[in-house]
Amino acid sequence: MKDQAVQMAIAILESAAADHTEEAPKKKSPFKKYALIALAVLVCVAVTVTLGLVILRVKTPKFRLASVAVNDLSFTNTTTSASFDISLDAVYAVKNPNYGPFKYRGAYVNLLYRGKRVGKARIVEGKAKALSTAEVGFRVSVSSRDLWAGSDLGLDIGSGMVWLSVGSQLRGEVEFIKVIKKDRKPEMSCTMAVNLVDKVVQNMKCA
């Protein structure tokens, strides 16, 4: 009888121990913890490298004439004088290929005839948003009144075609996160011919 009681007590203790073992929470594997830490580090490195490549590879925006049309035109070509007066309506475009906005300051567009300036237009400060193109219209007067009426001017007017070159430079900054700024100076270099008879602009090309 005593042996049976002892055996029964041992059985109860073993059963209680087994239940306690099953209810005890399982220990978390340290591998999972280290894997999460490693993943977080990789994500941070990837983001840093990506931002670094974007910032270090800032491209210079494109600065071009988008369109030019004749607003008004007059010219004379006689044995004693040769001259032209032209009013042009133009649009310039600033194409920004970067992931941050390009903010530029005011500048001037110069129009040249055979290397001599015959017109100038003011460009106001502006901004080209990230991965977009900003287009701005302006009017400029072109006149040969300050030029010496040499044989070239008379020949060009006589041919009905006056060639002009257009140049300018913008000074501005590509901005990232409103903190990091990279200076860029896009340049405009275009040529075009003004048809004096048809009053149109032809063969416009920008480098």
Helical content (DSSP H or I, runs of 4+): 25-40%
Count the DSSP helices.
3
Based on CA atoms alone, the radius of gyration comes out at 38 Å
- Tell me the β content: over 45%
SSE ordering: HHEEEEEEEHEEEEE
Major sheet characteristics? 5 strands, antiparallel
Query: How much is the average pLDDT?
Result: 86
- Alpha-beta content class: alpha+beta
Which blocks of ≥5 consecutive residues have pLDDT under 50? Answer: none
Ordered list of secondary-structure elements with their pairings:
Layout: H1 2-23, H2 30-56, E1 62-77, E2 82-96, E3 102-104, E4 107-113, E5 116-123, E6 126-128, E7 132-143, H3 151-159, E8 161-169, E9 172-176, E10 180-184, E11 187-195, E12 200-206
Antiparallel strand pairs: 1-2, 2-7, 3-6, 3-9, 4-5, 4-8, 8-11, 9-10, 11-12
Task: Describe the overall structure.
This protein has 207 residues and is an alpha+beta fold. The chain has three helices and twelve strands; from the N terminus they run ααβββββββαβββββ. A hairpin with a 4-residue loop joins strand 1 and strand 2 (82-96). The N and C termini lie far apart (111 Å).
Give a brief rundown of this model:
The protein has 207 residues and is of the alpha+beta class. The protein is 28% helix and 48% strand. It is rod-shaped.
